[in-house]
Amino acid sequence: QYAFLTGVRDKLSEIHKAIREVREVRGQLDTLVARAGDGEAAKPLVERAKKLGESTKAIEEKLYQTKNRSEQDPLNFPIRLNDKLAGVYQVASFGDNPPTASAIAVRAELTARIDAELAALAKLMAEELPAVNEAARTAALPFVAPSPAKE
């Protein structure tokens, strides 16, 4: 039970770190777009930055429900992967028993879907972010750089 719950907790932490990174990068991208202006020379940079922002937002919205603002909002907006995994954690933490076969299966399915989204995010950060930064360098604007991971 302890190993199962620790694994779920670690995956949730990984999701939340990725969401913080996405939000930080998107904020920097928005600032970069505002600084670039709307001139013809800035157009490639603005297009790339907006595309990267939209792509990261789509991944964030698969991992986390961004529209929740109150306790009643889960009734109006479907829960996302992090909330589903947190539900598995909650169910598996009751009592002093090993996790059920269904909890293990659901965790495996959710973890696979989460890992696919995190891999897509890592690919964007490894391939698209450098392209945005190269366009920013060409336009003599600051780079977009996520902060080092915080524990």
In brief, what are we looking at here?
With 151 residues, the protein is mainly α. Helix content is 74%, strand content 0%. It contains 5 helices and no strands.
* Whole-angstrom Rg: 19 Å
Portion of residues within helices: over 70%
**Model regions low in confidence, pLDDT < 50 over at least 5 residues:** none
How many individual β-strands? 0
Q: What percentage of the residues does DSSP assign to strands (E)?
A: under 5%
Overall mean pLDDT stands at 90
Structural class, from secondary structure content? mainly alpha
The main pleated sheet reads as:
none
Distance between the termini: 24 Å
Please provide the ordered H/E string of secondary-structure elements: HHHHH
Shape: elongated
Helix run count? 5
Structure description:
The protein is an all-alpha fold and 151 residues long. The chain is built from five helices and no strands. The protein has helices spanning 2-36, 43-63, 73-76, 81-93, 101-138. The longest helix has 38 residues, at 101-138. The two termini are 24 Å apart. 23% of the residues are buried. The mean pLDDT is 90.
Could you outline the blueprint of secondary structure elements for this entry?
Elements: H1 2-36, H2 43-63, H3 73-76, H4 81-93, H5 101-138
Feature tags:
mainly alpha
